[in-house]
Amino acid sequence: MNNLKCETGIAGNRGTAVKSDCYVEISLTKSGGIEIDLHSKVEKLFGDSIRELINNMMEFYQIGNAKVYIEDFGALNFVIAARIEAAIKQIINDERPFLFEILKQNRYSTERNRFRITRLYLPGNNPSLMINAGIHKPNGIILDLEDAVAADKKYESKFLVRNALRQVDFYGAERMVRINQIPAGIDDLDFVIGNFVNLILIPKCESAAQVKAVNEKIFSIKIQNSLEENIWLMPIIESALGVLNAYEIASSCENVVAMAIGLEDYTNDLGTKRTQKANETFFARSMVVNACRAAGIQPIDSVFSDINDMDALASNAKTSKALGFDGMGCIHPRQINVIMDNFSPDNDDIRKAQQIVHAFIKAEENGLGVVSIGSKMIDAPIVKRAHNTINLAVRLGKIDADWLQNYNGNN
User: Which pLDDT score is estimated for 405?
Assistant: First the structure.
C-alpha cells in the first residue's frame, strides 16, 4: 500500500465511565482478510450491524487485510464510524470522507437576527453529551473543537463533530461549531462546512484579518461544493488586544452576526482573577457591547463557570442584560432556563414595547413621518428593539401570538 503512513491507528475512548462511545484499534496485516475482535454491551442486538459497518468502511478505504479491535460502550453507528475513520486515516493517506446521510430535520438554515440568548457548549469528543442535548431547548448548541477537547484528541474529534452535524437531531437549535484558534482552526472548516453547520465561532480573535481568513476558507469550500446555505460567524474576544480591536472585528465581514467575550482567558491575559462582582471585566464587556451595537450585531456575554450556584448565575445574567448583552454561554443544561428567565422581558418591558409598536403603526396609517410617545421621539432602532422584545415575549408565552399578528410584529 503506497499511501501507508503507519501500521496502527487508534481512536475513541475507553473506561468504566465511558458511555455512547467506543475505542478502536486498527492494525494492518499482510494476509488473512479483515479480522474483527468486537467487545460490545449490545453484541446480541447490534453485533451484526457493527460488523457490517466495519466491513463496509474497510472496503470503502480499500483495506483488504487488517485486525480491527473494538470496545463498544453503546455507541451509535455515526460514532463508531467516526472512530474507525479517524483510526484509518492515521494509517493511510486518503482524504475521502465516509459520510452518512444528513437527517431531513437537520437541513435547516438560521436567520441573521434569531435569538441567541442561550448557547450550550458540548465537548466535541464526547458523543454522550451530544445525543440528547437538543431536548434542553437552548437557542444554540456549540460542538466545541477547541478548549473542551484534549490536545491528543483534537484530530479524531473532527470526524465525530462532522458526523454529529449530519446525524444528531438538535431539535431546531442553531448548530454551532467552535473551531480551534487561528491558524489551526482553518483546517477544522474542512470537516464542518457542507454539513449544515449554521454558525462558526472563532476563538481568541484579535483582528479582522483572522475573521476574513475564516471567511475566505468557507467561501472556497462553498464554491468547490456548490453550497448555498448561509454560514454565520461569531468571533470571541478573549484578550486585551481583542478588546481594543473589538469594532474592527465586529464589522469585518457581512456574515458576522454576533460577537462574544470569553472572560476566563481575558482575565488571565490581564493577569487578574475573575470575581463575582466582575469589576475587572467591566471595561472589556462594555467595549464589546458598544462595538457590537455600532456594527449592528448581537453582543453575547461569557459563560458562568459555577454550575451549582444558580443564584449567582441569575445575578450575573441580570448584570449582563443591564450592560446591554443579548445572551450568555452555558456549560451545563441546568443554566439554560436561569439565563433565559433573566434575559427575558418583564411586564414593564413588554408594555413599553407594545406602546412603541402601536404608536409607530398608527403614525404610519396616518401618513406621519415622525413618531412620538408623550414627549419622546421614536426612531427606527427603537421600534426594531420593541419588535424584538415582543417577539421574545411571544416565544416565551408572556403575551399571545395574536397581538403580534395584529400589529405586524413579525416584521
Answer: 64
Measured CA to CA, the distance from residue 210 to residue 230 in angstroms comes to 19
Containing 334, the helix (H) or strand (E) segment is helix 334-343
* Residue 26, beta-bridge partner list: 9, 68
CA nearest to 294, candidates 326, 250, 260, 258: 250
The pLDDT, as a whole number, for residue 409 is 43
DSSP string, 191-252: HHTTTT--EEEETT---HHHHHHHHHHHHHHHHHHT--S--EEEEEE-SHHHHHTHHHHHTS
Residue 13: all three cell numbers together: 475512548
**Ranges of CATH 3.20.20.60 domains, the chain:** 108-343
List of the chain residues with pLDDT < 50 = 409-411
Structurally, what CATH architecture does the domain formed by 8-91 represent? 2-Layer Sandwich (3.30)
Terminal-to-terminal C-alpha distance of the chain: 60
pTM: 0.90
Domain 108-343: give its CATH code: 3.20.20.60
Write out the residue limits of the CATH 3.30.230 domain(s) in the chain.
8-91
Q: How many CA atoms lie within 13 A of 84 on its CB side?
A: 32
Judge whether 261 and 202 are in contact, CB under 8 Å. no
* Nearest C-alpha neighbor of 297 from the set 247, 262, 333: 247
The DSSP letter of residue 101 is P
For residue 344, give Cα distances in angstroms to 45, 48, 234, 340: 46, 50, 22, 6
Give the H or E element holding residue 377: strand 376-378
